[in-house]
Design goal:
The chain has 403 residues and is mainly alpha-helical. 62% of the residues lie in helices and 3% in strands. A hairpin with a 3-residue loop joins β3 and β4.
């Protein structure tokens, strides 16, 4: 509400309206940082589905079952919506537009409310939310997981963690899971609704090796298959765009919108080609049990989401020193101008390069585990060396656009 009111009714100059930096400079980087520690827990406290949930509590919902077409194709739609958000953020300069930021927030709230009116639970969060989709993919990298003690679940006949309990007035799982069916970090919101419903004390919040899920799934998740190449491609395009490097190439397709669209598409295509080449070097992309998978995707996941953290961290570093003065300018509190400060680019770049190096090392570690375990004796030495070189190429691409 603060963002909406300030964005729609406050000054439309970003240097005089705190809602812009509050959204893009503080809230969004904080969400990205949370992925590495608590997975999708942000989704458990996210305000976007709140209006839809309120309408459901009032009985203003058809409470329909989610159709199969939404279950099957929701992942593709959410990736497209994520692409639209990133495209609009850059081309329409949403990160410098109070009204534009508020329109985006309103659109997400409206989408969540519409699905809340039509379907039971939080169908938007499970199937369509672009922020939830990227958070779910990133949560596979978290150092924590929310799981059930399945030994305690045996013999349960109520499934209250999924359905809720009308007698107690408690809600069930908003995304139709229930603690007993959570096998990965993709969809669980870590919202805690199952805790008061379970009389067996089964749900647990656990620490883990952050790469264990990536090593185990080996690229089976279709969400990650599309999110990861798009995210890496978009990051490279965004870094180049904001540093003015794209414009310096002297290539133009008639407008900024078309120029960035082309670079965004090229970034996605190049990264997809790199992933396919890496899968070819690995040599195994089909399993008789769970079908096709893309093992190069989990290898690149640490770099993909570290890259998003680095990108958002750069925006935070550029604007944090003017945040308090912006509040002062918006509310005519002149003495707050004294709190202005700047953060030099070079330390931020060095820290960014260090983070990306760690992401690359994590990718090499996952590859090494593949070679020692599931793909033992299958990957030839020259292919192993080639895969490490491919990871190094991705790292150098990041370092180049960062500096």
């Amino acid at each position: 509400m603060v963002v909406l009111i300030s964005g729609f009714f406050g000054p439309q100059d970003a240097s005089r309206n705190f809602s812009v930096f509050l959204t893009w400079g503080l809230l969004w980087p904080a969400i990205v940082l949370s992925w590495f520690f608590v997975g999708r827990m942000w989704c458990g406290i996210c305000p976007f589905p709140g209006f839809g949930t309120f309408l459901q509590h009032k009985g203003w919902s058809f409470n329909l079952k989610v159709p199969k077409i939404l279950q099957k194709y929701g992942v593709y739609t959410s990736v497209i919506l994520l692409a639209v958000i990133i495209w609009a953020e850059v081309v329409a300069s949403l990160d410098h537009s109070p009204a534009g930021t508020s329109i985006l927030v309103s659109a997400i709230v409206a989408g969540a409310a519409l699905l809340g009116i039509l379907f039971k639970g939080q169908a938007w969060c499970r199937h369509l939310c672009p922020l939830g989709r990227i958070s779910g993919a990133a949560a596979t990298l978290a150092i924590t997981e929310f799981r059930s003690n399945y030994q305690r679940c045996r013999g349960c006949t109520t499934f209250a963690c999924q359905r809720g309990e009308k007698e107690k007035g408690t809600r069930g799982c908003p995304v139709y899971l229930g603690a007993y069916s959570v096998k990965n970090n993709l969809h669980c919101l870590v919202c805690g609704h199952c805790l008061p419903n379970c009389d067996r004390d089964a749900p647990q919040f656990l620490l883990r090796n952050p790469y264990s899920e990536l090593i185990r799934n080996k690229g089976r998740y279709i969400t990650c298959t599309y999110i990861v190449p798009f995210l890496i491609g978009s990051q490279l395009a965004r870094f180049l765009w904001y540093q003015g490097n794209i414009q310096n190439y002297g290539i133009s397709f008639g407008s900024d919108a078309m120029d960035f669209s082309v670079f965004l598409l090229l970034g996605f295509i190049v990264v997809m080609a790199g992933i396919k080449f890496g899968n070819k070097l690995l040599g195994i992309t089909v399993d008789p049990v769970f079908g096709k998978f893309s093992p190069m995707v989990p290898i690149l996941i640490p770099m993909a989401f570290t890259g998003e953290l680095v990108y958002r961290m750069g925006f935070l570093a550029k604007g944090i020193g003017d945040f308090i003065p912006t509040i002062g300018r918006q509310f005519n509190i002149s003495f707050l101008e004294r709190f202005f400060f700047t953060i030099p680019d070079f330390p931020v770049q060095i820290l960014s390069a260090f983070f990306m190096l760690n992401g690359a090392i994590a990718g090499c570690y996952i590859l090494w585990r593949f070679c020692l375990e599931d793909f033992e004796g299958v990957i030839k030495l020259r292919n192993f060396i080639g895969l490490n070189i491919l990871i190094a190429i991705f790292l150098m691409a990041y370092i180049t656009v960062i500096f």
